[in-house]
Design brief:
Elements: H1 2-19, E1 23-24, E2 33-35, E3 41-43, E4 50-51, E5 56-59, E6 77-80, H2 82-98
Antiparallel strand pairs: 1-4, 2-3, 5-6
Helix pairs in contact: 1-2
Length: about 120
């Protein structure tokens, strides 16, 4: 648990850094986090990253990784903001703690989301 907190806080710090520069990563997931030999977590793959204006409706391509993308990312034109990447951070933490991929955002509307304690 301490290891997960350590790595996720490092990634959250990196996300805060890019958000302060009005950039959304848009593809935060376990596969886009590298752990170095000296136990540093590094957020990689900025191929989906886009400039944003917080909580403003904007047109962005609809690129997503199911289970890690927030509901608003399924649409090419929707409100997006820091919360979009925060959703993905939470989904990533869920995976780190449970070793189980999170339920897809669209499916969460009709399917129950298993509590991490189940695992």
């Amino acid at each position: 648990m301490d290891e997960a907190k350590n790595y996720m806080s490092q990634i959250a710090e990196a996300v805060g850094y890019i958000h302060d520069r009005n950039i959304l990563h848009r593809d935060i997931k376990p596969g886009n986090i590298m752990i170095t030999g000296d136990y540093r977590a590094i957020l990689i793959d900025f191929g989906s990253a886009r400039e944003f204006v917080d909580d403003k409706t904007q047109a962005h391509t609809s690129l997503l990784t199911r289970g890690y993308a927030p509901p608003e990312q399924y649409s090419t034109v929707s409100r997006k903001g820091r919360y979009s990447d925060i959703y993905s951070l939470g989904a990533t933490l869920y995976y780190v703690l449970t070793a189980t991929p999170p339920v897809d955002a669209a499916a969460r509307m009709t399917e129950p989301f298993p509590e991490p304690s189940r695992y």
